[in-house]
Write a structure and sequence with these properties.
The structure holds three protein chains of three kinds. Chain A is α+β, with helices and mostly antiparallel strands. Helix content of chain A is about 25%, strand content about 30%. Chain A has a single domain, classed as 2-Layer Sandwich (Alpha-Beta Plaits). Chain A is built from three helices and four strands; from the N terminus they run H-E-H-E-E-H-E. Chain A has a two-stranded antiparallel sheet with strand order 1-4. A two-stranded antiparallel sheet of chain A has the order 2-3. Chain B folds into two domains: about 5-185, Thiamin diphosphate (ThDP)-binding fold, Pyr/PP domains (Rossmann fold), CATH 3.40.50; about 250-360, Rossmann fold (3-Layer(aba) Sandwich). Chain B has a seven-stranded mixed beta sheet, with helices on both faces. A five-stranded mixed beta sheet of chain B has the order 10-12-11-14-15, sandwiched between helices. A two-stranded antiparallel sheet of chain B has the order 1-8. In chain B, helix 1 (about 10-20) crosses helix 2 (about 35-45), helix 4 runs parallel beside helix 6 and helix 13 packs across helix 14. Classes of the chains: A alpha+beta, B alpha/beta, C alpha/beta. Strand 9 (about 215) of chain B pairs parallel with strand 3 (about 70-75) of chain C.
């Protein structure tokens, strides 16, 4: 239900979001995966040099830049971008 | 500008602190030195010099407040007596490990445990050999008069900041409570923020400005290689103290055949003992250490070549005597005499002990 | 697909007051989140040059490696004593302590109570995850009854270990406190509320009206032996039931004039 609403507002407000994950600093804690309201973040099957499965954006075009992921990220590895299109 | 006053030992500590521009005093009541804080509270220096005076909830809190203040590059101090000083040991080693300057006064009373409230000299080990954990030392000053109580506050702070190390004034309940004529120190203003910045911006937590890295005051270092270097730096510091800061006084030592070694109240008793002994034809002298750490090793080495025996006179079971023995290195007989439980020996008792243990023992 | 990853489009990024050091905390640890919030607040208020932090003994002993301000390392539990001296000697600085539950409520209980009772104009940040994390997960004063730790392997037992201690509730009753609150950082909405609370505390310090005390009910994934996501759920279900969120006090320290009447003839 929430997903549909957000997609609706997305189309109305014409907001585009994106995230940049610092792969090497990510500890694979999964808090961003849980926090994302659209459930478009997942942990990669690949690991960084420390052995952590890092987070990545599954569906880039669906991101609305709400920044919940960056808010919950303990290590500040996510930079969030947002713009109007 | 300096004033002469008939004043009590503990009270003069308070006045000396205000006059040397101390920034803060954090303490807790304990007999026989509560007058220090009482005098400070009565003088209200926060209204005149801006000095902070705070009665803390315990000695543990007091010494940690001193740590916090010292880390800001401020002149801060605390005073207590033996049981309270025991509580402060953790804080003291943290201050030494973090290389912070501060002044601590121990007005020694009889121990161990809750002990007595009468004077004693049984905290020599605690003051000079550690007390807290780890390889560190306090620079220890032992006043023998109320004048020296006054003078050692300013001197103590100077040495503390010279070495970035805690300095202890090791006195006892007798000197703390006695009244003598004192020439009070001149007033020195407290350091301004600018002066502190110039002196201590490299290490003190006074606010990280863009022109430098953040300052971290800590004694923690988990990397052993680095920690060893830190420990070595501390050792080098103490070696420098041994080279440059030894202070002592000789009394009638030039022709002495026997030597008394005593500090603080015991040294004053010994001066009378020497008069008694000399009347009886015994050529007795006194070496009075003023710094207990660094210990006056060289004068003792020199006198060991001259005298036939030494008696360490301390109001304890015998603590400084070990350092006297170490200094003379077996060259000459060294014994201890002292009363415990808070009793001050009489001058004739000391002479008797000298006869029995040193002269008679031959 | 247009690339919008441009500087002008940034809405959220790592605070400049956080250093480049990778935090040593376990993945998902609440410490990291609270560090981030404090750094952001210092940046937003422009007080990096005026803030002095006092670090605890506990996992956050290395807090000074992460937030780029001057720091002092306190002995276990003694941070409020250090902060008292710092603030009284340098009243124009912003002073805060950052302590865990063992540090603040066990060995440091006296220092905590007395600093709050004196109404020192400082901010105390209290990270409560119900155990001693750094030393391997031992029981703390805030461990819940029945909660298993390495020194309560069968669960905390009241007869053996006494009751869990609600430090925040005690502190809220002390006359020197201004703002006492319990927050959490397990969801984005809670994190935003927690940040507001900490910022409020720093603003209160400006007004010099008493001590601010912020408990952050937190997780310890390693100590609780759960994943970060599971730990957050467990915390919400169990910890937050015993330590409910919300403001316990939101005013100023008691008016000193109200206390004069007891000495009147």
């Amino acid at each position: 239900m929430q997903k549909k609403l957000i997609k609706k507002y997305l189309k109305m407000a014409k907001i585009k979001g994106d995230i940049l994950v610092d792969i090497e600093e990510c500890k694979g804690c999964s808090l961003c995966v849980t926090a994302c309201p659209l459930k478009i973040i997942a942990l990669s099957k690949k690991v960084n040099s420390k052995g952590y499965n890092y987070a990545y954006l599954i569906k880039q075009d669906a991101c609305i830049g709400c920044a919940d992921c960056a808010t919950v990220c303990p290590d500040s590895v996510i930079t969030v971008y947002r713009t109007k299109i | 500008m300096s004033e002469l006053k008939l004043i009590k030992g503990n009270e003069v500590i308070a006045h000396a602190a205000i006059r040397c521009g101390a920034d803060g005093y954090f303490g807790y009541p304990i007999t026989p030195q509560s007058e220090v804080m009482e005098t400070l509270m009565a003088e209200k220096p926060w209204e005149t010099t801006g000095m902070v005076v705070l009665q803390a909830e315990s000695e543990v809190a007091s010494i940690n407040m001193v740590y916090g203040g010292a880390a800001c590059g401020k002149k801060v101090m605390t005073t207590s007596s033996s049981p309270g000083i025991s509580l402060m040991q953790e804080g003291i080693t943290y201050i030494a490990g973090a290389e912070l300057p501060c002044l601590i006064m121990n007005c020694v009373r009889g121990g161990p445990g809750l002990g007595t409230i009468q004077p004693s000299q049984s905290d020599y080990f605690q003051a000079c050999k550690g007390g807290g954990h780890g390889d560190y030392h306090l620079l220890v000053l032992a006043p023998a008069s109320v004048q020296e109580m006054n003078d050692f506050v300013g001197l103590g702070f100077d040495l503390a900041f010279k070495y970035r190390n805690p300095v202890m004034i090791l006195t006892d309940g007798a000197i703390g409570q006695m009244m003598e004529k004192v020439k009070l120190s001149d007033y020195k203003p407290r350091w301004t923020d600018e002066e502190i910045r110039k002196m201590s911006d490299k290490w003190a937590t006074i606010g990280k400005t863009p022109d430098r890295e953040r300052n971290i005051i800590t004694s923690l270092e988990l990397d052993s290689e680095i920690m060893e270097k830190i420990n070595q730096r501390l050792i080098d510091k103490y070696n420098k103290m041994k080279q440059e800061e030894v202070r002592y006084e000789e009394f009638l030592c030039d022709d002495a055949e026997y030597l008394l070694v005593a500090y603080g109240t015991s040294s004053r008793i010994c001066q009378k003992s020497i008069q008694i002994a000399r009347k009886e034809g015994i050529k007795l002298g006194l070496l009075r250490p003023i710094t207990l750490f660094p210990f006056p090793v060289k004068p003792l080495e020199r006198l060991a070549n001259q005298v036939k025996g030494m008696l360490s006179v301390e109001m304890s079971a015998g603590q400084m005597v070990e350092d006297v023995k170490l200094a003379v290195n077996g060259k000459v007989k060294v014994e201890h005499f002292g009363r415990m439980g808070g009793i001050i020996p009489s001058p004739s008792e000391v002479v008797e002990a000298l006869k029995q243990k040193i002269i008679g023992g031959k | 697909m247009e690339n919008i990853q441009k500087i002008e489009n940034i809405v959220c990024q790592k605070s400049k007051v956080l250093t480049d050091n990778t935090m040593h905390y376990c993945p998902g640890c609440s410490h990291s989140v609270v560090h981030k919030l404090i750094a952001e607040i210092i940046e937003e208020m422009g007080i990096q040059e005026k803030t002095i932090g006092v670090a605890p003994v506990g996992c956050a002993v290395f807090a000074y490696n992460y937030i780029d301000i001057d720091w002092q390392e306190a002995a276990h539990g003694r941070a409020p004593a250090l902060a008292t001296a710092i603030k009284r000697l340098m009243p124009d600085k912003f002073v805060f302590t950052y302590q865990g539950d063992g540090d603040l409520a066990s060995i440091g209980a006296a220092e905590t109570l007395h600093a709050c009772n004196r109404g020192e104009n400082i901010v105390i940040v209290f990270i409560n995850n119900g155990m001693y994390g750094m030393t391997g997960g031992q029981m703390a004063p805030t461990t819940l009854v029945g909660m298993k730790t390495s020194t309560s392997p069968y669960g905390r037992d009241i007869d053996l270990n006494g009751y869990p201690l609600k430090m925040t509730d005690i502190v809220a009753q002390l006359p020197g406190t201004a703002y006492v609150t319990r927050q959490s950082v397990h969801k984005a909405s809670n994190i935003r509320k927690c940040k507001k609370a900490i910022k409020k505390a720093f603003e209160i310090q400006k007004r010099k009206v008493g001590t601010s005390f912020i408990e952050v009910v937190s997780t310890c994934s390693s100590g609780w032996k759960m994943s970060p996501v599971e730990a957050n759920k467990w915390m919400e279900k169990h910890m937050m039931q015993f330590y409910p969120l919300g403001d316990l006090k939101d005013s100023e320290r008691d008016n000193p004039d109200d206390y004069k009447k007891y000495m009147e003839d």
